[in-house]
Every structure is written in C-alpha cells, then in structure tokens.
Model the fold of this input.
Amino acid sequence: METMLNNVVDSLKWRYATKKFDCKRKIDDATWNQIEEALILTPSSFGLQPWKFIVITDQSVKDQLPPLSWNQNQPADCSHYVVLCRLENMTVDHVKAFVEHTAKTRSIPVDSLAAYGKMMTDFISAKSEAELNDWMARQCYIALGNLMTAASMYGVDNCPMEGIDQAAYDKLLRLPEKGCRSLMSCALGYRAADDKYANAAKVRFAKADTLIHI
Ligand SMILES: Cc1cc2nc3c(=O)[nH]c(=O)nc-3n(C[C@H](O)[C@H](O)[C@H](O)COP(=O)(O)O)c2cc1C
Done:
C-alpha cells in the first residue's frame, strides 16, 4: 500500500488535476480498497446516500471513454476511473430501505425511527423531480471531494471531470438499467513523469479574500 502523505494540507498541496496519467502504473488492491472505503463513508443529507459509484478498470471500456469526455485521455490512461452517479429517482422506497438498514445496523426497532422516516418522506415528497435530482447531485459533489482528498492522502493522483457527455456515458455503461445517471467522474492513478501540469503553481485566492471570520 502507498504510504500516506504527512497530513491533509500537504496532500492537498501535492495533488493537482492530473492531465496525463502513467498508463502503466496501477493502484494496488489494498490502497484501492481503502479509497473505496473512504468514498462510501462520505456523509450525505439525512444519510440517504442517493448515489452509485461506477468503478471502471476494464481497459476495453476505458478506451471508449475519451471521445465521450471532450477528448480528454484521463479515462483511458488512469488506473481506476470512477463515474459518480445520482440515483435515477429518489423514492419513498429508498427512504424505507434506508430506515430499515439503520434499524438493523443499530439493533433498534424500525418503529423507533418512524418520525425520522416521516421527516425524510415529507422532505422528498415536497420536492419536484428536478429539485430532487439537483439535490442528489449536490450530495454527489461531496463524494467527489471526499474521494479526491482520500486518494491524495494515499499518494494517488486524481482528476475530477465534469467534461463528460452524461447521456453518452449513461448509454454506454447502461446506467438507467442500474438505476442511476452519471453526473461527473474522477480519474485516479499516478501522474506521468512528463505531465507539465504537475509543477504548475497552485492558483487559489488568498485566505483574506476567501475567508470571512466573524
Ligand atoms: C467539478 C470539477 C470538474 C472538473 N472537470 C475537469 C475536466 O473535465 N477536465 C480537467 O482536466 N479538469 C477538470 N477539473 C479540474 C479543475 O480545472 C481544477 O481542479 C482546478 O483548476 C484547480 O486546479 P487543481 O485541481 O490542480 O488544484 C474539474 C474540477 C472540478 C472540481
């Protein structure tokens, strides 16, 4: 397993949106398992986890992705390519399954969660389909951030990608049949020695222009 970098800030300074991956270097299973664990530990509103994460390592599938990704090569060259998807629909059945899973996990009666379940059901019932899809997407961005930070802590390079043709991804990966829709992706692996972006200075506004302390 890759050694973890010293701390979060060092890891975030080290990481950058990798444009060119070393296609020969693969993430080992132990490291990848840790990154997956971190990904599914992502918090979400109510804990509802309205997502699916498609992890693509099959090279024949990865090779089909650059033309569907603004001709970016990261999907083909990286080691693991994750497509972050929202659920096709946020439903009362999903809430019910979550409540039952919570009760089982915490060894408590389902009935003790009735008020919690009702609150969530009321929340989703009050929203339009478009609002719910937007809400699910916002949860998925939290997962994207968590994925990048966790990967960086393990010394794994990453590139978040919104430059994808979502409809084409959905079709190729048969996502509606899997009950989900693609939103964005993250390529993970190891930077190529000649990726010139690796040494570019980080561009962030100054703390004074970004943080407001009250
Ligand atoms: C949601 C999101 C989508 C992005 N989409 C792409 C993309 O499609 N291709 C790409 O090369 N970089 C993409 N980026 C990378 C950003 O351009 C990059 O993170 C930003 O310029 C900051 O640079 P840094 O990540 O190297 O610190 C994306 C970043 C985010 C957060």
